[in-house]
Design brief:
Blueprint: E1 3-7, E2 10-12, E3 18-25, E4 34-39, E5 45-51, E6 58-60, E7 68-73, E8 78-83, E9 92-98, E10 101-102, E11 106-110
Parallel strand pairs: 2-11
Antiparallel strand pairs: 1-3, 3-8, 4-5, 4-9, 5-6, 7-8, 9-10, 9-11
């Protein structure tokens, strides 16, 4: 059974940082492209970032370029999202995504 378990969310002030983690199990993590997506209150799901299987290629939505960094540790079956210079508009539930599957999400709240 595929499991994706996100953690690391929380409440921070604008300009702060958080590191999200996604522990993956039930599939060969090292062979899969993985993504992060988010859903802000009252809005639809938004793709944030993608990383290929070996971590050599990454993509980001324009609104987070230069502030967020996606990475994956294939030895630990873990996906990460380092988020710096956080803005109030980054407030959302963040999901780890494999193909059409996602975890339960972790809440990120950015406010002063």
């Amino acid at each position: 059974e595929v499991q994706l378990v996100e953690s690391g969310g929380g409440s921070v002030q604008p300009g702060g940082s958080l590191r999200l983690s996604c522990a993956a199990s039930g599939f060969t993590f090292s062979t899969y492209t993985m993504s992060w997506a988010r859903q802000a209150p009252g809005k639809g799901l938004e793709w944030v970032s993608t990383i290929n299987s070996d971590g050599s290629y990454t993509r980001y939505v324009d609104s987070v370029k230069g502030r967020f960094t996606v990475s994956k540790d294939n030895a630990k079956n873990t996906l990460y999202l380092q988020m710096n210079s956080l803005k109030p508009e980054d407030t959302a539930v963040y999901y780890c995504v494999k193909s059409q599957l996602r975890g339960q999400g972790t809440q990120v709240a950015v406010s002063s």
